Amino acid sequence: MKVVSSVAHLDADRHVRYVARVEFLVDGKLRHASTAAPYFYDWDTSPEAPGSHARTTRAIGADGAVAEQTLTVTVAPPTGG
Question: Which of 12, 22, 45, 62 has the greatest number of beta carbons closer than 10 A?
Fold first, then answer.
């Protein structure tokens, strides 16, 4: 199993003031949502297809404001053995 751990560190006064939830998406599909700090998600990449995947972390404020960041993660093919 290969796991990519993500922790969202929020600068609340920059984009989203009172955080209602933090969402973690892979290729645009919601994989996990956290409603209390610490906001984190451990993504098991073993069932994913090899290649590039978009990992998005989205903070949603109580007022509906949204801040997000997307990173490209490359999943390597499984190794023999």
Answer: 22
